[in-house]
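User: Structure please.
Assistant: Input sequence and predicted structure:
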Amino acid sequence: MQMALSVPTLIRMEKGDPSVGMGVYATALWLMGRHAALPDVAAPAQDLNALEQDIEAVRQRARRMSRKSANVT
């Protein structure tokens, strides 16, 4: 079997381009017999980039709250 996708999509997939649809990755895992790994790959805890963004958002909120409380007193 083979995947029905364009060469540019394959290249973007190999580079980890976030614009590649999850279905492409799911199909690739299925064709390789690794579809059981999909829940692990898709687990939010494995998305380090998203976790770093969440941490930065919390830090920025804390800074804003700190400035607001400093201006109130």
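Residues 1-42 form one domain.
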